[in-house]
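Incident log, structure service

09:12 report received: a user says their structure output differs between two submissions of the same chain.
09:20 pulled the input from the user's history:
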Amino acid sequence: MIDAIAFKFQTGTQWVHLPEKYGNWRGVYNRLRMWAVNGSWARKKRPRPANRQTTPSAGPAAD
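09:34 re-ran on a clean worker, output below:
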């Protein structure tokens, strides 16, 4: 399944022109769509690092 998806995107071919060795193109397409919708195919979001606190500059104090 992964090979079929990789082949499609590497070659830029249309789904209907996927080689027979990967099986029915509709099955490959539907599996990719299902994975994209449920988040299996998406890149996982990582928590953002905490922002460093800024310190005032060491310039002259304002009166």
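09:41 both user submissions now match this output. Likely a transient worker issue. Closing.
09:42 reviewer note: The chain has a mean pLDDT of 82. The two ends are 70 Å apart (CA to CA).
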